[in-house]
Here is the input.
Amino acid sequence: MIPQINIEDYNYPLDEDRIAKYPLPRRDASKLLLYDDGKVTESVFANLPSYIPERSLMVFNDTKVVPARLHFVRPTGARIEIFCLQPLEPGEYNLSFAQEASCIWKCVIGNAKRWKNDILALANPENDPIVERMGLKAELLSREGETGTVRFFWDDGSAFSRVLEVCGTVPIPPYLDRETEEIDTERYQTLYAHIRGSVAAPTAGLHFTQNVLDELSAKGIDMQNVCLHVGAGTFLPVKDSDVSRHPMHREPFVVSRSLISKLAAGDREVTAVGTTSVRTLESLYYAGVHCIEDGSPRDIEQWEPYTREYPYSTSEALGAIVKYLDDKGLDSLSLGTRIIIVPGFVFRIVDNLVTNFHQPGSTLILLVSAFVGGDWQTIYRYALTHGFRFLSYGDSSLLKRRNLACELLFYLAKCPIFVDVLLRPETK
Here is the structure.
């Protein structure tokens, strides 16, 4: 059954001065909130390794942010901003980035009403000769509101990935309310970013330094990567008060056979770095269900976890993926997910979560609430009253998952009838 959730219950007051507009000089100097079974304490991120269980699994999202914001100019002088969202032709990121003459993308278009049918040239205010030689242009193929289908083409035979590196800028979140600056090129990217494809950083990873990673390794923590390319949907607020009407966009992910096999063993705690890693890992269970019931995996749909009871253990589901991969001679699983994690979700893989502090009324607040059994306000109240910095460049937290029974009690406690029974004097 799809949960009935009012997004207004997941709002909180966030003043502009609490939003971190720039990163701290040192990545691991950020504050670290610690949440364990309703208790909140704090530390600094440099101390994170001391709070991660020895010889546990820690999973990172190694996606790399693409400099996907491009500025073009019409012959009239009007400026048009194009924000690349998703490759269409070719439809795979790696194939699109390898194109040497043209490709087609779904894009968000700024100042869209000013762009008619003319072909745009890239703005080059500095008269950069490399930019000039590339000769990047854009043609609008179709438009729907603020999004459109755009064909890019260029002259010098460079791969499109190189074109974006030279011509594009990092698409920092709109709530930073400033232009991209030089510091963002380095700091709006994790140290371990590897596979191009995201238009937003998995920001929980921005705090990790090489020293923190070395300390985790020295402690015997098995650090593994998944890759989920973060789409622009991560910036979209929940506009409908009824969360069931909020659409989640498809995001592609890749997980290695080796990691799935380790997760199937179920003998170690799993710490996910970031909500994108959580969504990837928890999507695996449903991919495994598809393998058991249909013989092969498919994309995970938004409300799939809530529509029926699932009789399979996590080990059975993940084991079915491993068998499927072995039968097909594959060393990784590549799928897409639209999964939304809200209160009522049954977590099957992730035990601990490293994450930042998210926007009010967002799907990420819903995920945090689900993870801590409904107790998200305890965490955010502490952060707001103890000087924590919020959103992408803000501070971090390490949350220990509360089980579903805790969540059930939390929501029952909000029910007036249940409260009345709790407070009623014993009758003899």
Notes: The two ends are 39 Å apart (CA to CA). The first strand starts at residue 31 and ends at 36. The chain has twelve helices and 17 strands. The chain has a mean pLDDT of 90.
